[in-house]
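Section 5: illustrative case.
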């Protein structure tokens, strides 16, 4: 009797182990199917029994410090890719491991993609990998930050060490600074005089220096104080803390905050609201997120600068495909700046809402 009980217990142990294995297997299958469906939806395929073959495979790589802006760039590249018979993969997205920019470049090169869209970080290793990609027959287009040493039109380039990228897609930094400067002039003409420009702490990013210099040119004849303050970009928390400290400063506190990224704009907006500085501090921001547009409607944000991020993504794909077809391409693609303020925000929202409806 004792032996039978022992035997049954052993049987129960084996049964439980078997059931556990089955459960784990089912979970893995479910997870795999979920990821597969996600990839299918990214391709825009509604019937999972069908698939789309593309002539070209491009990889988009960035550190995505401004995630919302990069989502729009990627969407523009993805849509343009479908027109150009190219699939654009956002390399590193939705992975369990956070790969460095260097690792993602190495992965793209090893995968033998047909082209790379890259936001470089100014590191020499990245510039070298751009050259490695070029030697492997993989053209690289840089976005927002360049890797090419240009002797002319330096105001258009974020010049660091040279690389063999084929083209550069960017906002004209000088024109962007002029647009900021006009908004600063509008506010200071109304009586405010202490202006702080929030800049990141990346010494390799020269585009913000061009913007700052251009702002100074626009308000040169006005009796105002303009100061550039570097924001710690190591983490979202550190940058938010820096902005709050600037706003709450008792030593000559700012009356105008100029933000060059959407992340800084949102942090400034939140801090102004939290510390009851609405009306005391005018914010000139960047990008056209729903939060920023609503803040303009509420007169919390004075104005914002934006650009067509979708067009930037489309230009990247256009450059890669043109190069692959003809071995020639424009060296530089410039995307213009749009100023949104209380005078045109309602019309801007209406126009863009109509475009989204039409797209659907």
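Designed sequence:
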């Amino acid at each position: 009797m004792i032996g039978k009980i022992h035997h049954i217990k052993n049987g129960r142990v084996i049964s439980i182990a078997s059931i556990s294995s089955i459960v784990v297997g089912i979970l893995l299958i479910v997870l795999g199917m979920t990821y597969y469906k996600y990839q299918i939806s990214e391709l825009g395929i509604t019937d999972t029994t069908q698939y789309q073959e593309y002539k070209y495979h491009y990889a988009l790589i960035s550190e995505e410090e401004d995630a919302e802006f990069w989502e729009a760039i990627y969407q523009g590249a993805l849509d343009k890719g479908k027109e150009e018979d190219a699939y654009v993969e956002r390399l590193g997205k939705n992975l369990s491991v956070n790969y460095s920019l260097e690792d993602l470049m190495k992965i793209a090169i090893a995968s033998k993609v047909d082209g790379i869209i890259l936001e470089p970080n100014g590191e020499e290793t990245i510039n070298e990998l751009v050259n490695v990609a070029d030697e492997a027959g993989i053209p690289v287009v840089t976005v927002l930050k360049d890797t090419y040493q240009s002797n002319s039109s330096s105001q258009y380039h974020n010049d660091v060490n040279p690389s063999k990228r084929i083209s550069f897609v960017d906002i004209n930094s000088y024109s962007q600074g002029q647009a900021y400067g006009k908004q600063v002039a509008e506010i200071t003409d109304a009586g405010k005089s202490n202006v702080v420009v929030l800049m990141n702490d990346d010494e390799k990013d020269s585009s913000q220096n061009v913007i700052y210099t251009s702002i100074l040119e626009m308000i040169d004849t006005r009796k105002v104080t303009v100061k550039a303050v570097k924001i710690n970009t190591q983490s979202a928390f550190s940058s938010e803390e820096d902005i709050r400290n600037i706003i709450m400063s008792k030593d000559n506190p700012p009356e105008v905050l100029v933000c060059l990224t959407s992340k800084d704009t949102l942090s400034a907006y939140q801090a102004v609201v939290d510390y009851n500085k609405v009306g005391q501090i005018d914010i000139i921001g960047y990008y056209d997120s729903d939060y920023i547009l609503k803040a303009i409607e509420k007169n919390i944000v004075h104005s914002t600068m934006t650009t067509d991020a979708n067009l930037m993504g489309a230009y990247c794909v256009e450059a890669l495909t043109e190069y692959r077809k003809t071995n020639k391409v424009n060296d530089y693609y410039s995307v213009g700046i749009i100023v949104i303020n209380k005078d045109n925000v309602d019309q801007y929202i209406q126009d863009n809402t109509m475009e989204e409806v039409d797209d659907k």
